[in-house]
Amino acid sequence: MNKVFNKFRSIKWHIWLRDLLFLGVFVFAISAWQSRNMLDSESNLEVNGQLLVGLDGQTNSLIKSDKPTLIYFFAPWCKICSLSIGNLEYLDTDKVNIVRVALDYSNVEEVQNFADKHNISSQILLGHEALKQQFKIQGYPTYYILDEQQKVLAKSFGYSTALGLKIRQFFSA
What we know:
By secondary structure, this protein is α/β, with parallel strands linked by helices.
């Protein structure tokens, strides 16, 4: 009886392992396909002098040079952005700067309403079409992690869990 039970458990374990492996490959393939038109990893950007106006009216630099920067591009009408923007709160801001950039908005009020709805107290910068083109933004949300020399370390398009963002942060630090 024990022999039969052990054989059953062994078979079940292999099936689970095979299914998890298949799921991992599937998720990786989808992620690679989604990010195929984004900036290449190891690309260097020239964004040092770029200043954007924030919701508070202050002018801010897109990149801070003291540590890696995660730039989160979103549109206030984007449903996936509504689901994912809160995940940024779980990142360790001692290790990475987080910059939220609104694009494709009709007016500043729309961005402010989005920020209020999601209780975002951090700065939101107001992006523009040239910035959208520079970063090859084709959908929302789009994430880039840049190092201190503005080299692309990681990129992602679509929903990212808090765990997924932490993993990207860990590998880019």
